Amino acid sequence: VVRQFEQLKPHVVLLDINLPSYDGFYWCRQIRSISTCPIIFISARSGKMDQVMALENGADDYITKPFEHEIVMAKIRSQLRRVYGDYAASHEERKVELDGLTVYLERLEMQLGDRKIQLTKKETILLETLLRRSPKLVSRETILEKLWDDSFVDDNTLSVNVTRVRKRLTELGITDALETMKTPLSVIELTVEDQEDEDPRFISIREEADQMRRGLETVLYVARLETFEQDFIVESISLKAAAEEAIHELKRFFIRNHVYPEMEINSALMVHSDAKWIRFVLVQLLSNAIKYSSGSHGQKVTIQAYESARSIILEVKDQGVGIPKSDLNRVFHPFFTGENGRHFKESTGMGLYIVKDVLTRMNHRIDLVSVQGEGTTVTITFET
């Protein structure tokens, strides 16, 4: 595809998200690495996060199906005028330079010697802010303020973009150029590890450290979604072993909330998937089940698996608060916390969205059934 693009040198590119082998986001990044021509997504997927991801990966516009032909043509003409015609910039290109590294602010690109790498808009803003103030320290608040000029972001988004910029710099051969000044989470965990469990101060610190650890892991996995195809390894895995690993990781969370796991999985039950991503999915689902079951002593979370006609079913079932019927059709939407989000402070609205995204990429199906006041059952279907 890239070779054909270089041969044809199109003036504008129209992309869909759902494509064979690799999705439109992937090809958008590939095109952006060699060209600044306008890219417009045209897709039936109308979710907010799909549109955000398209623009973050270098697209100039996003049109949802069904669409009006006249509007599409008008947008194409507008992009052509902006890049090649009457509105094309004639002034000197804006850029920031430091020690041989150049960041081009309009074309969202950085260059060192003859090597070039395409950036997202947020990565460009982050690099510009750091380079303009080098070698001084730049506060978290200053960076967030700059990023907020583009769109509202939180600490997790900032962490993801710092990780991405580090990776981009490493691709150019620049290592250890970006440092963050913080108290390592591992130091906090080691500090409280040897303390007496009865001390309420250290119990509270340990709880916060566990919560931070889960949040940090979620951020890192979100960052890995950008290169999912390269990070995805299919193998035969034991569902029982995967469930046991996830339960062990959350043992303190279970105990602290007086919720206890009940596992009904035959050790011989195997599926073809990625062990690392399945563990991540199970940790997310179990965390939700524990969180929404807390408050009543002796609650159980059941993890069971069984064979169906032409598939293997894995279920995570809790006896918690359940989900209001009015919220059920939106639980997989990004940032949606619903009515329960008003009562549970840890709700981010991203857990189920990420889980569905991951499982969809691995060709597994996820379903959710819930009754308010009775509990929730999440089902994952592995085709055999």
Automatic annotation (TrEMBL):
The Response regulatory domain, residue ranges: 1-80
A GO CC term assigned to this protein in UniProt: plasma membrane
GO BP field: cellular response to phosphate starvation; regulation of DNA-templated transcription
Domain OmpR/PhoB-type: from-to ranges: 93-190
UniProt keyword list: Cell membrane, DNA-binding, Kinase, Membrane, Phosphoprotein, Transferase, Transmembrane, Transmembrane helix
Reaction(s) the record says it catalyses: ATP + protein L-histidine = ADP + protein N-phospho-L-histidine
GO MF annotation list: DNA binding; phosphoprotein phosphatase activity; phosphorelay sensor kinase activity
Domain Histidine kinase residues, every copy: 176-384
Alphabetized SUPFAM superfamilies for the sequence: ATPase domain of HSP90 chaperone/DNA topoisomerase II/histidine kinase (SSF55874), C-terminal effector domain of the bipartite response regulators (SSF46894), CheY-like (SSF52172)
Bilayer disposition of the protein: Multi-pass membrane protein
Subcellular location, record wording: Cell membrane
Root EC class: transferase
InterPro entries, sorted: BphY/WalK/GraS-like, CheY-like_superfamily, HATPase_C_sf, HATPase_dom, His_kinase_dom, OmpR/PhoB-type_DNA-bd, Sig_transdc_His_kin-like_C, Sig_transdc_resp-reg_C-effctor
Protein's recorded name: histidine kinase
